[in-house]
Amino acid sequence: MYNFSIMLVDDDKANLIGVSKNLEFEGFSVKALNSGEHAIEELRKKSYDLVITDLIMDRISGIDVLKEARKLHPDIMVIILTGQGSVSTAIDALRLKADDYMLKPCESEEMIFRIKMCMDKKKHLLEKR
Predict the structure, then answer these.
(1) Could you give the C-alpha distances from 18 to 12, 28, 36, 99, 128, in angstroms and in order?
(2) pLDDT tens-digit profile of 65-89?
(3) CA end-to-end distance (rounded Å), the chain
(4) What is the pLDDT of residue 100?
């Protein structure tokens, strides 16, 4: 069982349910939200260790969620997840300090590996302080 709190944001209901169930099965605490608006509202109330957000959503994009998450919680980790990735969007996400960038569909094992890498990075940064 992991003690990491994860916010998962995706406007694709099937993906949201599938990924959240996989993460919960692996022992993660997951808050699944279906829009960027809901994610930002939740981030204003509570901090999470990690946000995994879809890149392309109606009205508020994953990049907007990333920006707001960084503003509200500078130590939060963010993974951008997208089914329509390009070199340009990857560069934009990384310039805005996304911690990782993944293409959909992704294997559960790959996602778990990347989450663990982000959490190791966060632990290391917090220990340095």
Answers:
(1) 10, 14, 18, 22, 36
(2) 999 999 999 989 999 998 887 788 8
(3) 26
(4) 92
